[in-house]
Amino acid sequence: MGAEGIQVEQLDLLLDRESLYNLRPVHGFMILVKHKPEAISYTLNDTINNHIYFSNQVVHDAYAMHALLNILLNCTTTIDIGKELNHFKQFTHDFPPALKGLALTNSHVLKQVYNSLSSSSINQHDKDIYHSISYVKSGSHLWELDGLKRNPLKLGLCNDNNWLDIAQMEISKKCEMYSKQHLPVSIWAVVEDKRLVLQRKLIGKDYLKKEIESKLDYYQPEWRTTMDFTRWEEEYRHAMNNERNKRGQILFTKLLQNYCPSFDQLPSEEQTSVKSVLNTKQEDIMDTWLQIQDDSLRLFECLGFEDEKQELYEKNHLQRQHDYMPFIQSYIQALYEEGHLQHLITNS
């Protein structure tokens, strides 16, 4: 849809605080509930809430896109949503929620995106129906954007430090309610592209490594000539030969060309956090250097894993788009003509 630097991650239904905080930066959450939603009465005269973008789930086919847009269009200060979505938001700004929902289904650009992600072999009547609910922090409040309600719901006060805790509590309560009704539910988070997050962390680790080595060169000039240093470097190089680590290193180098090329390009709060590590006591500085080496290996591995995931997503996307029916028909026809079809049917 043109939004840059984000990805969507499915979460475990048993939300825990540590897992949520490891996802940061988080832009919002989505709950998708598998059931046939009850019909609700929409009206084009509903009150427009200009503090938050909210649209009704008028057509149920595009439930995931609907939930995603209710997050993206409320995060335009933290996400580059691109030209098309910016235009769509401005065009529908003064529409009531129901009309916003209808505009989504009538947008040529969004219909193209939806069709490109839909399997051509799935019968329209066989598609599952879902009810989507989004959660975002806007201003100083957490909001619930339920597409089957007439208006957004303000859940409570929050800030950048505690909104994930409040969202966890609200989402857990909602999932528990659906569980008691035996309705299948899944939770998704809209987060910053993890490859970019990991690349920035590696930039910070590289900066720390060089700064600590500079200190060691000054205070312990002979430190590089020790047996331990030689062994540590050999172990590090050996670990970097791991296929996933090598993949992560290649991606890291590629990202340097287009994204964050140096420590000076990191956000100021990230620079401050990294520099605080340099206050390590002199007697602990070698341990800190070793920890940075270990952290870097783990980050390269994570970066390689994220690259593998993206490659798998692209393959799945191509497979989902492909129409296998002509191949299946030709294969069955060939089996029939070669005299194998009846035998396979009989023995099946």
From TrEMBL:
Protein keywords: Hydrolase, Protease, Thiol protease, Ubl conjugation pathway
E.C. number(s) listed in UniProt: 3.4.19.12
Broadest EC class assigned to this enzyme: hydrolase
UniProt feature coiled coil, ranges: none
Keyword Protease in record: yes
Signal peptide interval: none
Record field: catalytic activity: Thiol-dependent hydrolysis of ester, thioester, amide, peptide and isopeptide bonds formed by the C-terminal Gly of ubiquitin (a 76-residue protein attached to proteins as an intracellular targeting signal)
Domain UCH catalytic: 1-192
InterPro entries with a match to the protein in the record: Papain-like_cys_pep_sf (IPR038765), Peptidase_C12_UCH (IPR001578), Peptidase_C12_UCH_sf (IPR036959), UCH_C (IPR041507)
Family membership noted in the UniProt record: Belongs to the peptidase C12 family.
Name recorded for this polypeptide: ubiquitinyl hydrolase 1
